[in-house]
Amino acid sequence: MAVYVDNMQAQFGRMKMCHMIADSTEELLAMADRIGVARKWIQSAGTAREHFDIAMSKRALAVEAGAVEVTMKELARMTRARRESE
């Protein structure tokens, strides 16, 4: 089981954002708690697309806490595989 962060750097105001997903909702929420991301910011909760958009500073904290770095393409493949298995 793992948490993943991609290498996307989408501009959002003055911030750059990326995606954070996990193998389970519990892992995703635990990492959000650990790096200081409010649970209310979860997107597509309970679906194969469940994720957080996080700032690059939070991404660094997630990697420090054990998140696996992946490319945007790898993350998209993981999400697609989840949808197909639902």
Please write out the topology.
Blueprint: E1 3-5, E2 10-12, E3 15-22, H1 25-35, E4 52-55, H2 56-64, E5 68-69, H3 72-85
Parallel strand pairs: 1-5
Antiparallel strand pairs: 1-3, 2-3, 3-4
Description:
This protein is of the alpha+beta class and 86 residues long. 40% of the residues lie in helices and 23% in strands. Strands 1, 2, 3, 4 and 5 form a five-stranded mixed β-sheet that branches. A hairpin with a 2-residue loop joins strand 2 and strand 3 (15-22). The two termini are 18 Å apart.
Summary of the model, kept short:
The chain has one domain. It is 40% helix and 23% strand.
Strand content: 15-25%
Which geometry do the CA atoms define? globular
Mean pLDDT: 96
Q: Count of DSSP E strands?
A: 5
Helix content: 25-40%
Class from helix and strand fractions:
alpha+beta
Distinct helical segment count: 3
Considering the chains and any ligands shown, give keywords for the structure.
86 residues; alpha+beta; 5-stranded mixed sheet; globular
